[in-house]
Amino acid sequence: MKTAIQKMRRLRTIPVTQTMGPYSQTSSSTRGRERQREAWGVIVLLCVSLVGGLLVGGLAGCQSGANVSDENLTTVDIATLRSWLGEAKKKHLVVVDVRQAEAYEAGHIPGAIHMTLPQIRANEPRLAHAKTIVVYGSTWTDPLTPAAVKRLLALGYTDVVGYRGGWEDWSSQTSVAPMP
Prior knowledge:
Elements: H1 2-11, E1 17-20, E2 23-26, H2 28-62, H3 78-86, H4 88-91, E3 93-97, H5 101-106, E4 113-114, E5 132-136, H6 144-154, E6 160-163, H7 166-173
Parallel strand pairs: 3-4, 3-5, 5-6
Antiparallel strand pairs: 1-2
């Protein structure tokens, strides 16, 4: 019997009991360890639930509207964008720069508004009058541009296109003065 109790103490999986007459009682140090394990179990469960909820909620939030894939994306070249900018008021065109604030402040396409990906929401006042929205990022390979286009389409905006050349293409093909 003594060897079984010693094994249980080493494994610490089953509480060690002390026999006190006809009653048996779990020792206070063992009860403390059990409570501590239970508390850690609850904490781990809460953390896993929180992270899982954020992941599922975040993904669901990105696709709250229509199912949007890469096949739904339309891009424009610099010539098209220039012609649209010439008639921007008539066309109700809004150009959205999704780069970081520092990059936007260093230079951006004339008339563009700054809006990072997390700022893109349904019923955004700066996009309320837009019939056509052009989104651009830093370069041809910037993943923010297609991500922002998808998000806007999923939120219900209909005429959304990406300028995949981004600021790098625009600034290399246009004489650019620093933006105020």
